[in-house]
Amino acid sequence: MAEVMRPEKFDISNDTSSLASPELLHVLAVDDSIVDRKFIERLLKVSSCKVTVVDSATRALQYLGLDGDNSSVGFQDLKINLIMTDYSMPGMTGYELLKKIKESSAFREIPVVIMSSENILPRIDRCLEEGAEDFLLKPVKLADVKRLRDSLMKAEERVFKNIKHKRELEASDIYSQLKRAKI
Amino acid sequence: MQRQVALIKQSLFDQGYLDDQFIELEELQDDANPNFVEEVAALYFKDSPRLINSIDQALERGSFDFNRLDSYMHHIGASKVKTECTMFREYCRVGNAEGCLRSFQQLKKEHAILRKKLDHYFQLARQAGPKEAARRSK
């Protein structure tokens, strides 16, 4: 195909990072307990996920670039598919972290899962109302993590297929326009 | 040797020192990570004494900031130790200082016992060979 038209709109080959076929999910895990961090990290690795673990909600916000010190410009390439956070943490709780994430335009679409060792109904309700994807009781089971991963992979696959299809349509559209122009 | 390890593990389960979570942890072990359970236990026994100490000091001072005591205890719960933790936290919830002191003494005892038993178990398991440590007993 000739270089006849290269408007920005049909920039097909760029931005492969977000277009790579569904691969490893990248999970950000937040927990103030060192034992729990080791455990959730292992669960996620066994489930074939890429893991980043931090020990506080503040550090999670720093990692995401939401702490106000950095603008989010430098973090465009950061691809997080899921955030799993403990509820009870000193300083900022998992619930407060959840709210901050849902308030951010860059990250509000990322599913946030809350983990807690306490089965407190009002707490669960509050989190779900604030937009949490799920609420897991500790100790978290491998089955829980696999279930999460599977449903996320399905969602990613759907998005990937949609984009791919859209681009195929755009490509065939360019092609037919070129054919007409060339006569 | 391997049978001994299996027997000890079974008795730890029977006496309530270990529960299903131990099995879950074992299932996360593989050839690349054969000592995961032991590593977790080691971390726990590195972390929990610090928390126990904090509670000890607070109680000794006569400081019954139940919220703070409760948050220390939050991370200590492990099987039999968990029972005592739960009781301690209940006492915190209702502001019962004497109950806190009593359950805390019991907890320290259980914690020390658990530590000794697990140390012994892991030592034997290592000697018996990595395969045994990863196998389930139930």
From TrEMBL, chain A:
GO biological process: cytokinin-activated signaling pathway; phosphorelay signal transduction system; regulation of DNA-templated transcription
Matches recorded under SUPFAM superfamilies: CheY-like (SSF52172)
InterPro entries cross-referenced by the UniProt entry: ARR-like (IPR045279), CheY-like_superfamily (IPR011006), Sig_transdc_resp-reg_receiver (IPR001789)
Record PTM 4-aspartylphosphate, positions in chain: 86
Name this protein carries in UniProt: Response regulatory domain-containing protein
Domain annotation Response regulatory: ranges: 26-153
Keywords: Cytokinin signaling pathway, Nucleus, Phosphoprotein, Transcription, Transcription regulation, Two-component regulatory system
Compartments, as annotated in UniProt: Nucleus
Protein's organism: Brassica carinata
Main location: nucleus
PANTHER family cross-referenced by the UniProt entry: TWO-COMPONENT RESPONSE REGULATOR, TWO-COMPONENT RESPONSE REGULATOR ARR5
Family under the similarity heading: Belongs to the ARR family. Type-A subfamily.
A cellular-component GO term for this protein: nucleus
UniProtKB/TrEMBL annotation, chain B:
Subcellular location: Cytoplasm, Cytosol; Nucleus
GO terms, molecular function: histidine phosphotransfer kinase activity; protein histidine kinase binding
UniProt xrefs under InterPro entries: AHP1-5/YPD1, HPT_dom_sf
Keywords linked to the UniProt accession: Cytokinin signaling pathway, Two-component regulatory system
Domain of life assignment: Eukaryota
BP GO annotations: cytokinin-activated signaling pathway; phosphorelay signal transduction system
Gene3D superfamilies: HPT domain
GO CC annotation: cytosol; nucleus
Xref: PANTHER family: HISTIDINE-CONTAINING PHOSPHOTRANSFER PROTEIN 4 (PTHR28242:SF43), PHOSPHORELAY INTERMEDIATE PROTEIN YPD1 (PTHR28242)
Domain note: Histidine-containing phosphotransfer domain (HPt) contains an active histidine that mediates the phosphotransfer.
Function: Functions as a two-component phosphorelay mediators between cytokinin sensor histidine kinases and response regulators (B-type ARRs). Plays an important role in propagating cytokinin signal transduction.
Protein name per its UniProtKB record: Histidine-containing phosphotransfer protein
